[in-house]
Hints:
Blueprint: E1 4-7, H1 13-16, E2 21-23, E3 27-31, E4 39-43, E5 49-55, E6 60-66, H2 74-90, E7 101-106, E8 115-120, E9 123-128, H3 131-135, H4 137-148, E10 154-159, H5 166-172, E11 175-177, E12 187-188, E13 191-192, H6 210-219, E14 224-228, H7 234-241, E15 246-251, H8 254-267, E16 274-278, H9 281-287, E17 294-297, H10 309-326, E18 331-337, H11 344-358, E19 362-369, E20 387-393
Parallel strand pairs: 1-4, 9-10, 14-15, 14-17, 15-16, 17-18
Antiparallel strand pairs: 1-3, 2-6, 4-5, 5-6, 7-8, 8-9, 10-11, 12-13, 18-20, 19-20
Helix pairs in contact: 2-4, 6-7, 10-11
The protein binds S-adenosyl-L-homocysteine (SAH).
Amino acid sequence: MEKKVILKKGKEESLLRFHPWIFSGAIATIDGNPDEGDVVNVYTSGGEWIATGHIQVGSIAVRVLSFSPVAIDRAFWLDRLGKALDVRRSLGLTDRDDHSIFRLVHGEGDGLPGLVIDIYGRTAVVQAHSVGMHFAREVIADVLMEIMQGRVESVYYKSETTLPFKAELERAGCYLIGGPIEGDEPLEYGMKMPVDWISGQKTGLFIDQRENRALLEKMASGRNVLNMFCYTGGFSLAALRGGANLVHSVDSSARAIELTRQGVENNFPGDTRHEAFAEDAFKFMDEMESIYDLIVLDPPAFAKHKDALKRALLGYRRLNEKAFRKIRSGGLLFTFSCSQVVTKEQFRTAVFTAAALSGRSVRILCQLHQPADHPVNIFHPEGEYLKGLVLYVE
Ligand code: SAH
């Protein structure tokens, strides 16, 4: 029997605009007894087929895979992953000797809600954010090997911890294809990046800051740099290569600090310009001297849900105010928010308020965002999450 979802009257409207999520409240009936993660066909109340997608328990009940009637088979995955690779190839990210890190699939942005694939040298890291993608992991890994034509040898699978299949995953082990590759050093524009996909955050690296790191590199010469919330120290590496005078990296996670030190040692052995501190950001900023003239603030998402928005905005304001109060005159502040629920305007207002409260005169030099290998589906504006500002502080 066909597994199908029938919408309430009028609830097809967002689907006619190709929005890829169907909320549970839009559904009238579910037929054919689908299990969580199954592929279902979606029909309007009038009985017209409108989409195919993965069904899941929760407020987003169906994640749409196709708005045209195709089977979700090997050919489908080959087509979608192939197109995603074409996009990255056209961005010049796939065929360089000095660069082997990029995001191949960015969920909704690549027409594959619930799926992330990051490439680190010869290893691909696949992450499922939905039960449907979890069930499809084997065919995805197989197709991935085919389209990457020998450039990928291992596929590591990492699921979201909140999903119900976590226990099964741990029992199953996580390499779907191959295993750890001795001596493979993933590069970001020539920099050897410390990546730990097994125990690290996300898939092991914040690839989404790549272009912003490259920008900082151009502006770091001769500066005293503070990289706050450094994680694996990407901005610190960029600052060192850009000719910074000194670089201080701070993160509350001891493991992150260890990886940062490793990354510096691998790229700049014996460089004494760098120091790393495992400390709380707010405490560090309260106690630090006014010695920095380039500060990076890249905190974790302060708001994961809409109800946390107010507190998050206050958090951004406080954090930025601390930086404004301490940054040297003529300093540059790279400040970011990766909270999807915080809009560009709200973030800018929080930073604006911080500047006003600190009494500093501030110019916006650059407005930053996620890079092109993290594309935004034009019908799914929720996919735009990373925003940043480069500010000149008089
Ligand atoms: N800028 C990094 C990514 C930052 S992710 C990059 O380019 O790779 C956010 C980091 O903030 C995480 O590593 C997390 O450990 C750290 N963090 C979270 N809360 C913190 C706090 N209160 N003080 C310092 N670091 C914190």
